[in-house]
Amino acid sequence: MAYIEVLDLGLKDYKEVWEFQKILHAKRIEDKIPDTLILVEHNPVLTLGKSGRLENIKIPVSLLKAKGIDFYQVERGGDVTFHGPGQLVGYPIFNINKGLAGIRPFIEKIEDSIINTLHDFGISGRKIEKMIGVWIGEKKICSIGIAVKKWVSFHGFALNVNNDLSYFELINPCGFKDIKMTSMQEVLQTPIAMEKVKVAIIKSFMAIFNYTNSNFSFQQ
Questions:
Q1: What is the dihedral of CA 124, 102, 76, 159, to 10 degrees?
Q2: Domain around 73
Q3: What gap in Å lies between CA 26 and CA 6, rounded to an integer?
Q4: Are strands 213-218 and 3-12 parallel, antiparallel or unpaired?
Q5: 103-120 and 194-208 are packed helices; what angle lies between their axes, rounded to 10 degrees?
Q6: Confidence tier at 218 by pLDDT (50, 70, 90)
Q7: What is the pLDDT of residues 48-78, one digit of tens each?
Q8: pLDDT for the residue 58
Q9: How many other C-beta atoms are found inside a 10 Å radius of the C-beta of residue 59?
Q10: Partners of 148 in the beta sheet?
Q11: Summary mean pLDDT of the chain
Q12: Half-sphere exposure of 135 (CA within 13 A, CB side)
């Protein structure tokens, strides 16, 4: 029976959850825990992936703290992105059974899970060839950046639900100057209940990744 553990961490600073991911990642490598999906919102933070360029942050990094924004360079793929309250971030700590050949299909399954979730809210999401993430028309609504070590994934996706999109003006999202970001709230012109989005995400992940059973828990 394929089983997934889901941990809802609420609102947490990025660094705390980054360290928690590493703990779970080590346990998953040793098969001490099942595949685990962390759901969380972060306080304002910019993260830069291993292939990212600092010039994609439009203001000096030294000034971010004064704006209440943390900054971390991390081991995921991709360039710079923003996380903040109202954005649902998901970190799948999953065993990728097919090694390198399984990484791209794994990312595509995450994209499909997000597209299915958006569909539940009447939003038509799509993929763009040779681009990672999920889009609404020409605007991006979900960024994806993962890391895989010893065939276990960490880092993950960031779905814009009700978050303040003005923060993205501080960066070239994902390293592209011409990308415009959107959110579920902007598309539907109304705030979205985050708990409903979480339920839809879990349902979609279970369907796309073929999990037949789950355990959902909230951690303070």
A1: 20
A2: 3-218
A3: 17
A4: parallel
A5: 140
A6: low
A7: 999 889 999 999 999 999 999 999 999 998 8
A8: 93
A9: 14
A10: 153
A11: 93
A12: 12
Contact assessment for residue 127 and residue 115, using Cβ atoms and an 8 Å cutoff = yes
Secondary structure (3-state) at 110: helix
Whether pLDDT at 95 is above 70:
yes
- Residue 50's CB is within 10 A of a number of other CB atoms, namely 13
* Per-residue pLDDT at 100 exceeds 60: no
Maximum distance among all Cα pairs of the chain, rounded to whole angstroms:
50
Average pLDDT over residues 177-196: 95
**Exposure of 58 in the CB half-sphere (CA atoms within 13 A):** 13
Catalytic residue flag (residue 174): yes
Q: How far apart are CA 122 and CA 216, in angstroms?
A: 25
Binned at pLDDT 50, 70 and 90, residue 1 comes out as low
Amino acid symbol at 75: E
CATH of the domain at 107: 3.30.930.10
Question: Which has more confidence, 88 or 220?
Answer: 88
**DSSP-derived secondary structure for 177-220:** TT-EE--HHHHHTS---HHHHHHHHHHHHHHHTT--EEEEEE--
Q: CB count, 10 Å around CB of 19?
A: 9
Domain count, the chain: 1
Given 174, 192, 197, 208, the catalytic residue = 174
